[in-house]
Design goal:
With 116 residues, the protein is mainly beta. It has one domain. The chain has 2 helices and 8 strands. The chain has an 8-stranded mixed beta sheet with strand order 1-2-3-7-8-4-5-6, with helices on one face. The N and C termini lie far apart (32 Å).
């Protein structure tokens, strides 16, 4: 998944959601690669991780100061998220991509237990 969002033709919009952190999109291309689009956050990512338990919520850990909670993940997006090793995250500011970066996916048994 070394392509920018402009270079990857995303074939399937798995999720358009308005969760507690604001609107986000989860898209998948024909190769099975996942793109998560969020609005821009302050500060750059430092050792980011996408923590997911296969359910309706996930946590995008960007840095010690910044994490993004993704709630109400569409059921169609759940299996694709469980089988990829990494995702491409694009942070947007208006209609522009402010930054993009690859994030490893870490599957856990229970996200709530990790957050406790």
């Amino acid at each position: 998944m070394n392509n920018t969002p402009e270079e990857v033709a995303m074939d399937k919009d798995l999720n358009i959601n308005d969760g507690t952190e604001g609107t986000y999109d989860i898209l998948q291309n024909a190769a099975g690669e996942i793109l998560v689009i969020i609005r821009q956050r302050r500060g750059g990512p430092e050792n980011p991780r996408f923590v997911y338990d296969g359910g309706e919520t996930a946590l995008l850990y960007r840095s010690r100061e910044s994490s993004v909670f993704l709630g109400n993940i569409n059921i169609e997006a759940r299996n694709p998220l469980k089988i990829v090793d990494e995702i491409l995250v694009a942070e947007i500011d208006g209609d522009e991509v402010a930054r993009e970066y690859m994030v490893p996916v870490r599957i856990v048994r229970d996200l709530k237990a990790v957050l406790s």
